[in-house]
Amino acid sequence: MGVSRLTLQLLGLALAAVLSGAAPAPVPAQGLGRVISPIVTLDRDRLFAGTLYGQRVNRELEAASNAMAAETRKIEAALEEEERQLTEQRQTLDPAAFRDLAQAFDEKVQALRAERETAQANLRRQIEDAQTAFFERIGPILGALVRERGAVMILDRRAILLTAADVDITEAAIARIDATLGDGGAQDSAVDSPLSVPDAGAPETTPAPGDGAEGAIPPATNSGN
Length: 225
Description:
Shape: rod-shaped
Distance between the termini: 43 Å
Number of helices: 6
Radius of gyration: 26 Å
Strand content: under 5%
C-alpha cells in the first residue's frame, strides 16, 4: 500500500488523540535529557515490522502467500498434464470434436486465471486491512507518546532530511505498543485471525500464484486452429 493513505491516517489518528487530551505542561529539556520539539518523527515501516503485532501479521501473510504459491504450482501441473493429453488426442479425434475439447480447455484456463486474479486481489485486501487495523489501534498509544513529549505533530521520518535523533519516537512506540497490545492475536477482529488463502472455487484443484503472490496460469492452447 502506498505511503500516503496510511501515513495520513496514522497522523490523523495521532493528532486526534493529542488534540483530544489536555495540553501538556511545559517540561524543561534538561529534565528529560532530550530536545523538546513540537514535532516528532516516526518510521512507519520499522514500527510495523518491529512490533509483536506486526510480526504476527507478517508471519500469517507469509504463510498465506506460501499456501497460494503451492496451490498454484499444483494447478499449473494439472493444466499442463491436461493439455498434453489433449494434444495426444488430436491424432485420433474427429477435427470438430477436437475443436470442441480445445475450446472447453481454453475456457477453463481463462476461468482459472480470472479466479486466481480475484484471489490475489483478496489477499492484497487482507494485507491492507491488517495494516489499517494496526494503525487504527495504535492511534491512542501514539497520541499519549506525543503528549508526553510535549509535541503536537508526528511526521514520517522518511520525509525528513535532517533532524535531532531524539525527536524520533519509533523505538518508544514499539515498546509501548508491545506492552499494550502484545501481538494483537487475542483481540476480536476479523483481520486479527490468521489470514487465509482466498478460495478461488476452481473445480478439483484451485489455482494460486506461482513464486510468491503472482503465478502464471499456462496460456490457452491454440490446438484447435
